[in-house]
Each structure stands twice: as structure tokens, then as C-alpha cells.
Design a protein that fits this description.
heterodimer; A: 154 residues; alpha/beta; Glutaredoxin; five-stranded mixed β-sheet; two-stranded antiparallel sheet; B: 161 residues; alpha+beta; 5 strands; 43% helix; globular
């Protein structure tokens, strides 16, 4: 299994937002979205990644991109994680059925029961514009990679 | 803030802070912040190693809320010729980084505290710190400390430093 490739329509999926409402493929339409898949809430490496993206969030916003963190943690765990980090990046839960969305995007690591570390950028038309997957969860994608992908749209 | 797409690590410039003893071209370029405990460990090891290194700021607010203020304090001290001393002072005691602590450090270094306080909040100083931060982002830095040795990036405190 590997991450969805550019040019592929985003699959149908269902995630939970922080207020337990659904977040689906329809929510991607009309804007540029970056889904930040990470292995576990509260793990040190994930912390650094989201902290950095938060620091440059105004630049992502200025370029019309909306970021979401996605993991298989529960909504409550994600909310606690977000509060602990002091970040505003909304979190989306792939808790039940566990990993179904991650599998649809090709980023579920079966042996670990978690998403791999991956990024998927989806255009306003719901088509994947760019994706990235680390060789292993310890490889952290810099914010520069997302800015490169945003610049490549033009 | 300019573009943050990928760019090569900037080479050593006259505006960079070269720290440590010894002469010769620094081998290491370090991206770090003053509230990061791992950066403090690295600092101790670099001081002991006795070789010069380049220090660049990489403060991230949500992770280390006082890191930006501390970086600006170091730069403001630098405008009075005492960057290295303020840098060492901040790493020597990371538990005291609030404004009164920064003023106290400035007084201990015989700085003009009024000027120090104006400078650390100035656009020029913020821009100086941001320039380091942005160069790190563009080179792929995610966490602190991150070291570059001959262009090779390593995150964390290396065991052999």
C-alpha cells in the first residue's frame, strides 16, 4: 500500500471533526486542502511536525491552503493533543471504523495499527494534486515541501 | 515573511553568529532555540568541544512560548556587542525567560537596559530572527536542535557531538 498519487480523485471517506460531525470528500471541494497524516497523538515526532506547521500557518492560509491533522486517535484524544500543543490546526479522527480513511488514501500501516507519516494535497476539484510519504515514521516532512507543492499549482 | 519553499542552506555570512573558541571555518551550523532543553545539552557539548560553530535561531511559539522573546533578547544584546554573553546566559538558566528575567540578564551584562528593551521589540530585531527561522524552514528544518555539517542535516543531539 502506498499513498494516493497526484491526478487521482480523492476517495470517498468519512472522518470525525472535533465536534463529532462528519468530514467527508464533499468538504474538500472548492478549496485546497492538505491532510497531514501522523502516527499517534502525543508522540514526540508528531508534536514537532504540527508545531512547525502552526508557526507558518498564516503563510499556508495566505496561499489558500487549509491544513488538517489526521490520525486514528479518538476525537477526545485528538482534542487533548491539540490543546496540549497549543495549536489551531483542526484534527480529524479516523477512529471507527479504525483506519478506513487512511486505507482509502493508502497510508495505513497495518502492522502498527496507525497511519504512516504522509501528506496529501487535494485541489478544489477533489483531485489529489500532490502527495508525500516518509520512508519511515521518523522522517519528518518540512513545511518547505508543502510550500513547494503549493507553488507548483501555479 | 517571504516565500518558504525549498532553498539550499545559506552559507556562512558576516551577519551570522559564530560562537565558541578556536579559529578556522566553522564546521557546524546549528538551528536552535533558547527554551529547548536538548539545545541546552548540545550547547554544553559544543562549548566543551572547543570548535567554533554557527548559531541560527529557530523559535517555534506553540512548542516553546518564550523562545521568540529570548531570541530577540539575544539579538538586542548583540546590538550592544554582547550577543555571545546573552546567548550563554540564556542557556545557563532556561527556567527564567520572562521579561523581568531578561531585564535582569541585561543589567548583569551592563547593557543599556532601556535601549535593550526597545531593541528587542523592534522590527529590525524581529526580522533578524525571522530571517534565520525562514532559512531553516526552507532548508527543511522541523525540530530543534538541527545541525548541518558539510550540508548534511541531522535533527536532535547527535551522540558523537
Amino acid at each position: 500500500m502506498s499513498v494516493v498519487e497526484p491526478g487521482t480523485p480523492a476517495p470517498d471517506f468519512k472522518l470525525r471533526r472535533e465536534d463529532y460531525s462528519r468530514f467527508t470528500r464533499e468538504d474538500l471541494l472548492g478549496r485546497t486542502t492538505v491532510l497531514v497524516f501522523y502516527p499517534f497523538a502525543f508522540s514526540a515526532v508528531c508534536t514537532d511536525q504540527l508545531n512547525l506547521y502552526e508557526e507558518v500557518l498564516d503563510q499556508f492560509t495566505a496561499q489558500g491552503a487549509t491544513l488538517y491533522g489526521v490520525s486514528c486517535d479518538s476525537v477526545d484524544a485528538q482534542r487533548a493533543f491539540k490543546e496540549k500543543l497549543g495549536i489551531t490546526i483542526e484534527q480529524l479522527s479516523d477512529w471507527e471504523p479504525k483506519g478506513a480513511t487512511c486505507r482509502a488514501f493508502g497510508v495505513y500501516f497495518e502492522k502498527g495499527g496507525m497511519p504512516t507519516r504522509a501528506l496529501v494535497m487535494i485541489g478544489p476539484d477533489g483531485v489529489v494534486q500532490w502527495s508525500w510519504e516518509g520512508e519511515h515514521p521518523g522522517v519528518l516532512p518540512g513545511a518547505n515541501l508543502i510550500f513547494d507543492a503549493l507553488a507548483a499549482r501555479e | 515573511m517571504g516565500g518558504l519553499g525549498s532553498a539550499p542552506l545559506p552559507p556562512l555570512t558576516p551577519e551570522d553568529h559564530v560562537l565558541g573558541d578556536g579559529s578556522g571555518e566553522p564546521r557546524l551550523i546549528v538551528y536552535a532555540d533558547y527554551e529547548c532543553p536538548y539545545c541546552a545539552v548540545l550547547e554544553q557539548r559544543l562549548v566543551r568541544a572547543g570548535e567554533p560553530w554557527v548559531f541560527r535561531h529557530f523559535p517555534v511559539r506553540s512548542k516553546h512560548p518564550r523562545a521568540w522573546a529570548a531570541a530577540c533578547a539575544a539579538e538586542a544584546a548583540g546590538l550592544q556587542g554582547r550577543f555571545g554573553e546573552m546567548h550563554a546566559s540564556l542557556y545557563a538558566d532556561q527556567a527564567r525567560l520572562e521579561d523581568p528575567h531578561l531585564w535582569e540578564r541585561a543589567r548583569a551584562l551592563d547593557l543599556d537596559v532601556e535601549r535593550f528593551d526597545a531593541d528587542r521589540r523592534s522590527e529590525a530585531v524581529v526580522a533578524r530572527v525571522r530571517r534565520d527561522f525562514e532559512s531553516g524552514v526552507r532548508a527543511g528544518v522541523v525540530t530543534t536542535p538541527t545541525l548541518f555539517e558539510q550540508g548534511v542535516m541531522r535533527a536532535g543531539v547527535p551522540a558523537d557531538t
